Amino acid sequence: MSSTKEMVFNFSAGPASLPKEVMLQAQADLVDWNGLGTSVMEISHRSKEFIQVAEEAEQDLRDLLDIPDNYKVLFCHGGARGQFAAVPANLLGSASKATYIDAGYWAESAAKEAEKYCQPHIYKAKHEQDGHLAVLPASQWEIDPESAFVHFCPNETIDGIEINDLPETDKPIVADMSSTILSREIDVSKYGVIYAGAQKNIGPAGICIVIVRDDLLDLAQNTLPSILNYKELAEKDSMYNTPPTFAWYLSGCVFKWLKQQGGVQAIEKVNREKAAILYSYIDESDFYKNSVHSNNRSIMNVPFTLAKPELDAEFLELAKEQGLVALKGHRAVGGMRASIYNAMPIEGVQALVKFMREFEANNA
Amino acid sequence: MSSTKEMVFNFSAGPASLPKEVMLQAQADLVDWNGLGTSVMEISHRSKEFIQVAEEAEQDLRDLLDIPDNYKVLFCHGGARGQFAAVPANLLGSASKATYIDAGYWAESAAKEAEKYCQPHIYKAKHEQDGHLAVLPASQWEIDPESAFVHFCPNETIDGIEINDLPETDKPIVADMSSTILSREIDVSKYGVIYAGAQKNIGPAGICIVIVRDDLLDLAQNTLPSILNYKELAEKDSMYNTPPTFAWYLSGCVFKWLKQQGGVQAIEKVNREKAAILYSYIDESDFYKNSVHSNNRSIMNVPFTLAKPELDAEFLELAKEQGLVALKGHRAVGGMRASIYNAMPIEGVQALVKFMREFEANNA
Predict the structure, then answer these.
(1) Residue A147: what pLDDT?
(2) pLDDT digit string (tens) for B322-358?
(3) Cα(B334)–Cα(B232) distance, rounded to whole angstroms?
(4) Domain span(s) for CATH 3.40.640.10 in chain A
(5) Eight-state DSSP code of residue A330
(6) What GO molecular functions are on record for this protein (chains A, B) (predicted)?
(7) With bands split at pLDDT 50, 70 and 90, how would you rate the model's confidence at A140?
(8) What is the pLDDT of residue B104?
(9) What percent of chain A has pLDDT over 90?
(10) Which of B354, B358, B349 is nearest to B9 (CA)?
(11) According to the CATH classification, is domain A9-20+262-363 in 3.90.1150.10?
């Protein structure tokens, strides 16, 4: 086996870093899991061994998020993009409208896919405040009264924007939590549907978690593919077809790891500390800049720019030499982005700030 | 790391055994792939490192199946069940009919999902011949002239049935090759669409290969979710959204392994030899029975029953003690089933026959 580099901190926005302890355990067990002499990915999803994996993963997630009993937890194919279609096709019923709150790239993408199924009422919530990017308070969001639901994305990975409030509404609230789930405490009972692609805070790409209130299971359109139908998935315990078993297993390992860290409350504290270290340094520096208003700064994705963009390539190259990888910003916005999901240890953020400080000293 | 059992032969129908060499390499590389200090599942699907994985996997598959240039190769979410919906929703165009050849459980399931999109003309091709299960010759299949396409499943995993001929028709032929792809030579140019869930002959569950002729890309229905839209996937090189990267990587490793074995022609020879060993013994024995006609016996899935079904549990228990696992038949048909996909070495089949012979001697 090749030796593992000691000091790589991976700031990828997704597929993102997974907890090192989880990866080492998965490696140890890869060809002989549970004493079976085979990998967990080589056994039937209907075997008692895999059913136990599946059930434990669901229960651990229920524990971590304190999910009420009247919510189903589904493990789906198709990623969050699949849910951009699945949400309207499952929830519209006889309605033809839904409200989409637009505060960034992902919310906008969800609204675009929804046009296949309904007339999305799009409310632009992103605005400028004191020279910074910000999101209007949820109390001001304009919700179309004929909407079947209200969709929003509480953390925009590309823009580095986070939304911390919820609207007062009798419509089901649907949230794309791909890049924020399990990073901070939430009250699941306030939502109709929460969904999240795994590849940030949960596990490898190729699985998507859907948490859906059970009174919303009877509204699906006839032409919805069964693999995306909440009711069919709920009735079959997410085994309508062969699920992505290895991704489900690894997600379950991450849930157990998170419980060992003290759960969501404990990891939120660490996440806020990590974000504070990075934003504080950026704010005190004249060389780096983050343009999001402090009310809406993401604790998961921290985009920043250099005062001298011509040094971007050098910054990335030197960072990589120090084991600080995947810091390049999204192609839509340029600059840098440090994604500091649950699996990023505080030492990674400290190492990044140390490097940024040195780079500034050499180039300011 | 726990030690690997030497002698486990895994006859699971799917998720199935993967080549041992591939699994050992994946294990060695799991936490530090390609010298990056991270796993391949922790890097961006848009990184140059992953793009290379993706492109090589596609090229290797093209080489293995000699896929003509006018076919797109897609790596999709959703498994073959996702394609049960995707096929009609992508191919119907303005047609409202399609022909579904029914020779087993999976073909029937595909036809049922198709009812959401069209009126499937279902032709029952399974019949009894000389006291055995058989499939009517493709030349006799009744194809509705208004059909947009003809769908069939050339290998039925549960029934243990294989179809080796194709109808003469001007309609695009669509084949669910989940359990037969790469097991024997095929002429891709005869098909409109070939699709296959990975978890038998390709890789882990959670990825599905679609090979589609490029003149069929413009017929999709408006309400088809983008993640299942062939044209969108083709235009985006299967990265319309984050693909299941680890499953894609591992599939690519299996393709390279298969090339090292000499490709499809060479593995077909081994597969036919493996199947012949098992069927020959079953036929010479009075204790075991396979009820499929020799014309249609699957070389991938071999169901068989014991003369004394009350010994089923003991058979399974003793087999497991000898490292012969996952031999229980599908719950729909009972008995036993040995799935002997590409990754099953001939030694596994020999060990199974040796055990069956001993069990017969002790219990006949």
Answers:
(1) 98
(2) 999 999 999 888 999 999 999 999 999 999 999 999 9
(3) 42
(4) 27-260
(5) P
(6) O-phospho-L-serine:2-oxoglutarate aminotransferase activity
(7) very high
(8) 96
(9) 97
(10) B349
(11) yes
Q: Which of 3.40.50.300, 3.90.1150.10, 2.60.40.10, 2.60.40.1930 would CATH assign to domain B263-363?
A: 3.90.1150.10
Q: With 60 as the cut, is the pLDDT of residue A141 above it? A: yes
pLDDT beyond 60 at A57: yes
- Mean pLDDT of the region A264-288: 98
Which pLDDT score, from 0 to 100, does residue A296 have? 98
Q: Tell me: the pLDDT tens digits for A295-310?
A: 999 999 999 999 999 9
Q: B2, A116: Cβ pair inside 8 Å?
A: no
Does residue B8 contact residue A38 with C-beta atoms inside 8 Å?
yes
Distance CA B249, CA A216 (A): 37
Which residues does chain B have with pLDDT short of 50?
1-5
Q: Is A234 left (phi over 0), alpha (psi -120 to 50) or beta?
A: alpha
Contact A250, A22 (CB under 8 A): yes
Q: Which CATH number fits domain A27-260: 3.40.640.10, 3.20.20.150, 3.40.190.10, 3.30.450.190?
A: 3.40.640.10
Band of residue A331 on the pLDDT scale cut at 50, 70, 90: confident
Task: Determine whether the interchain pair A78/B80 forms a contact, defined as Cβ–Cβ distance below 8 Å.
Answer: no
How many other C-beta atoms can be found within 10 angstroms of the C-beta atom of residue B136?
18
Per-residue model confidence (pLDDT) at position A2: 37
Chain B: closest CA distance from residue A196 (Å):
13
Q: Which amino acid is at A177?
A: M
Alpha helices in B92-132 (DSSP H): 105-114
H-type alpha helices, chain A:
20-28, 48-65, 79-91, 105-114, 230-235, 245-260, 263-284, 312-321, 346-363
B280 vs A332, higher pLDDT: B280
Burial B346-360 (b: 16+ CB within 10 A, else e): eebbebbbebbeebb
Question: Which residues of chain A does B226 touch, with a Cβ-Cβ cutoff of 8 Å?
Answer: 81, 84-85, 113
Termini Cα distance of chain B: 43
| Bond from prior residue into B137 cis (ω within 30 degrees of 0) | no
Task: Fill in the amino acid letter for B45.
Answer: H
Beta bridge partners of B289: B305
Residue A324 reports pLDDT greater than 90: yes
Q: Which residue has the tokens 């400028």?
A: A128
Does B337 count as an annotated binding residue?
no
**CB atoms A15 and B199 under 8 Å:** no
Chosen from A9, A22, A27, A157 to mutate, greatest number of chain B CBs within 10 A: A27
Domain limits, CATH 3.90.1150.10, in chain B: 263-363
Q: Which residue is listed with tokens 């022909």? A: B99
Total length of chain B? 364
Among A37, A81, A172, which Cα is nearest to B227's?
A81
Start-end of CATH 3.90.1150.10 domains in chain A: 9-20+262-363
pLDDT score of B4: 41
The CA distance from B161 to B195, in Å, is 18
Query: Considering CB atoms only, which of A30, A86, A241 is closest to B23?
Result: A30
Per the residue annotation, which of B72, B126, B200, B274 is the catalytic one?
A: B200
Taking the C-alpha atoms of residue B172 and residue A310, their distance in angstroms, rounded to an integer, is 54
Q: CA of A168, closest CA in chain B: separation in Å? A: 30
Report whether A120 contacts B263 (CB < 8 A). no
pLDDT value at residue A6:
62
Q: What is the reported pLDDT for B6?
A: 62
Choosing among B10, B20, B157, B246, which should be mutated to test the A contact, i.e. which has the most A CBs within 10 A?
Answer: B246
